[in-house]
Amino acid sequence: xxxxxxxxxxxxxxxxxxxxxxxxxxxxxxxxxxxxxxxxxxxxxxxxxxxxxxxxxxxxxxxxxxxxxxxxxxxxxxxxxxxxxxxxxxxxxxxxxxxxxxxxxxxxxxxxxxxxxxxxxxxxxxxxxxxxxxxxxxxxxxxxxxxxxxxxxxxxxxxxxxxxxxxxxxxxxxxxxxxxxxxxxxxxxxxxxxxxxxxxxxxxxxxxxxxxxxxxxxxxxxxxxxxxxxxxxxxxxxxxxxxxxxxxxxxxxx
Length: 254
Fold this sequence. Notes:
254 residues, alpha+beta, 2 domains, 9-stranded antiparallel beta sheet, 7 helices
């Protein structure tokens, strides 16, 4: 073996440890990636596991918990649809309705123990315009009776809950960096859940109250369950029948 060949062999031998380290590193990275894929669960601001199975033929996919929703005390979803005056109302399954509700449409559920859910990003909320939201809910409540509104964002800690009956506000609270709406006495359910509600115009250091704001956003669904229904916790037997999907008329937002 001449000197050039000896140097080449020596160089190759020096590369072997580096190759072993590189292969080992890629192996551990691959194993960690596979484990993460197997154990990952959706935990976004609006994601919760909704019930699967039952008579609707749901598969094992995970549905979004709505970021905002209405609960109406009613036994007939068609009556709710008539008051909302949806564009092109179409009967649909729960699965179809929840998918359509992501596209600025509204999904009206079948009646569940005397309550009808209305879900969809097209619902007006107090964060965009509190006056529009107030008029919208008041009009629905005058026509339908008891109407409840819920909204929460875990990312920016915006949250709101409203309870109306026959056009009268019994309780309303909305926060988006400041108190947008605070009306009516605090309910027993809010006290039990230790929800923190700030008065109008009260200046808050965000970092001093961020944990309380986050807790408010996290517990909106629990408040909904105490007042009526939380869509994320319904048992599979409740999710039966067909609902209605359609677009919200702009005449409802004036």
